[in-house]
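Table 4 source record.
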Amino acid sequence: MYLMSCLPQLVYQKDGHEIEYFDKYKALQLSWYGHVTSETYMHVLDEMLRLGIQYQTENWLIDARDVDFMELGERNWTRNYFRNEVLKCPLKKVARLASGNFENETYISSFISSVLNGMNLPYKFCYLPDANSAFEWFSEDDCTSKED
């Protein structure tokens, strides 16, 4: 049974974007693909939240390595989502694997900082180099950021 808990379960798939559930890590992994439009961004994140509530996940891995370009959606929607909506599930850690598009990723990083800075949110955010690093971080007992 231990081996089965390590295997991901595909719980959402549309237009190359996938969300997998990892029971062992109480985690969802969202894998973005290609050009992510604002509409797709908001729709898939709504699915992520719905699944986060359903599975009571504590950890999210957002994998943007296969993204060509990402639109973040409406700024107020995104701020509300990460400051309020995600609090509906027991989220403790969010890891992001960056895309190779340096210019787009710089914009996203700056926006993420503006959303999270100054907020006393019950979850930590961290950029990590790969999925293994994320799952190791998820397995740590404390909820400190690797960047702290």
